[in-house]
TrEMBL record:
Annotated protein name in UniProt: ATP-binding protein, ABC-type sugar transporter
Positions of the ABC transporter domain: 3-233
Coiled coil start-end: none
Superkingdom per UniProt: Bacteria
Pfam family, one: ABC_tran
Keywords for the protein's UniProt record, in alphabetical order: ATP-binding, Nucleotide-binding, Sugar transport, Transport
Family: Belongs to the ABC transporter superfamily.
InterPro entries (alphabetical): AAA+_ATPase, ABC_transporter-like_ATP-bd, ABC_transporter-like_CS, ABC_transpr_MalK/UgpC-like, Mo/tungstate-bd_C_term_dom, NA-bd_OB-fold, P-loop_NTPase, Transp-assoc_OB_typ2
An annotated Gene Ontology molecular function: ATP binding
Transmembrane segments: none
Entry's Gene Ontology cellular component terms: ATP-binding cassette (ABC) transporter complex, substrate-binding subunit-containing
Length: 356
């Protein structure tokens, strides 16, 4: 089922929550909407499911505008952000509630609750009340409740927030398989770009109420269309520096790049991902830039190394294999291939042709 947002605008007083947002959601895709807090993710979802009306714009479902349709008539399942279960109802009653409201027949409701509980491995919880559940179990029930509807589009608003990482990993895997099983479109919001990269087939980057880039997840990661997209997606955060063109060279923070075709004096933003900032083996400082190690995060198989290079901070992510990470306050040789540097217009932030 095709889904398109066209020019969706929503204001709350002076706050512009959504600013003529446009997005084509690929049918049967796992599409992640990733943007910082307050970028408009929840507002977009509330408008999609019909809890709020946009000030302008259309939502086309299979080509038909559904903006005026009552929520119950929209074929969309919804897991709201921070959903709290009703404390005095059992898990089964909590799950059934939206269908009860929509006056589904009792046996139909029971059959769906059983089936969805089975898929999400919560059958053993159905008779319990929320106070008897762990945090992870509650979240699983909230997700199950949203997936109960016989829909072709499911909307999940930051459903894993606050869970410990083992539980998150498990639920992430389950949600991906669930999408395949239901063969539905999943639209999933998160502000965590690592979670977004893990989950997404397609990724839409949201910033200040607009989709600034969308596409297949690896394309968005490797070919950011603007500096903000590079800034928002990826962990650890990308290195970004304002700079300018002089004597045929882009100089931005510690980065240097041939200015091929760029006007002398023009403002540029240059960026590089931490995995492209390579470090020489310990003691080998020949023919490279020298940097001081200001912090090391050892993640086992890799390390994030924070550096000071001529007064500029620079983050490097290196695979460790069988070597130890560099030591705090030591000096390391840094290698940057200019081909790995991404260049953006200093004013608009748009990617400049010719870099990478
Ligand atoms: P996100 O889900 O990405 O964190 P939201 O959609 O919740 O973003 O919020 C987008 C913007 O709209 C924020 O500035 C928020 O304060 C504002 N906003 C959202 N809902 C309301 C509301 N009901 N009343 C006033 N402002 C709101
Ligand atoms: Mg939100």
């Amino acid at each position: 089922m095709s889904l398109q947002f066209q020019g969706i605008t929503k204001r709350y007083g002076k706050t512009v929550a959504l600013d003529a947002l446009t997005l084509d959601v690929a049918p049967q895709s796992f599409t992640v909407l990733c943007g910082p807090p307050q970028s408009g993710k929840s507002t977009l979802f509330r408008i999609l499911v019909g809890l709020e009306k946009p000030d302008a714009g259309q939502i086309l479902l299979s080509g038909r505008d559904i903006v005026g349709d009552p929520p119950a008539e929209r074929p969309i399942g919804y897991v709201p952000q921070n959903f709290a279960l009703y404390p005095h109802q059992t898990v089964a009653q909590n799950m059934a509630y939206p269908l009860t409201l929509a006056r589904f027949p009792k046996d139909e409701i029971a059959a769906r609750v059983d089936r969805t509980a089975g898929i999400l491995s919560i059958t053993h919880l159905l008779a319990k009340t929320p106070d008897q559940l762990s945090g992870g179990e509650k979240q699983r029930v909230a997700v199950a409740r949203g997936l109960l509807k016989d829909a072709q589009i499911f909307v999940l608003d930051d459903p894993l927030v606050g869970l410990d990482y083992k539980l998150r990993e498990r639920l992430m895997d389950e949600l991906k398989s669930l999408r395949e099983e239901l063969n539905a479109t999943f639209l999933y919001a998160t502000s965590d770009s690592l979670e977004a990269l893990t989950m997404a087939q397609r990724l839409a980057v949201l910033d200040q109420g607009r989709v600034i880039q969308d596409g297949e997840v690896t394309a968005v990661y490797h070919q950011p269309s603007q500096a903000r997209s590079l800034d928002l997606i990826g962990f650890p955060n990308a290195n970004l520096y304002p700079g300018s063109v002089a004597d045929g060279t882009v100089t931005a923070g510690p980065l240097r790049h041939p200015a091929a075709g760029l006007e002398e004096g023009s403002a540029v933003i240059a960026g590089i991902r931490p995995e492209h900032v390579r470090l020489n083996p310990e003691g080998d400082t020949a023919g490279t830039m020298q940097a001081r190690v200001t912090l090391v995060e050892n993640l086992g198989g890799e390390a994030v190394v924070y550096l000071d290079l001529d007064g500029h901070s620079l983050t490097s992510a290196i695979p460790l294999f069988d070597r130890a990470p560099p030591e705090f306050d030591s000096t390391v040789g840094v290698r940057i291939d200019p081909a790995d540097i991404l260049l953006f217009d200093g004013t608009s932030g748009q990617r400049l042709a010719g870099s990478r």
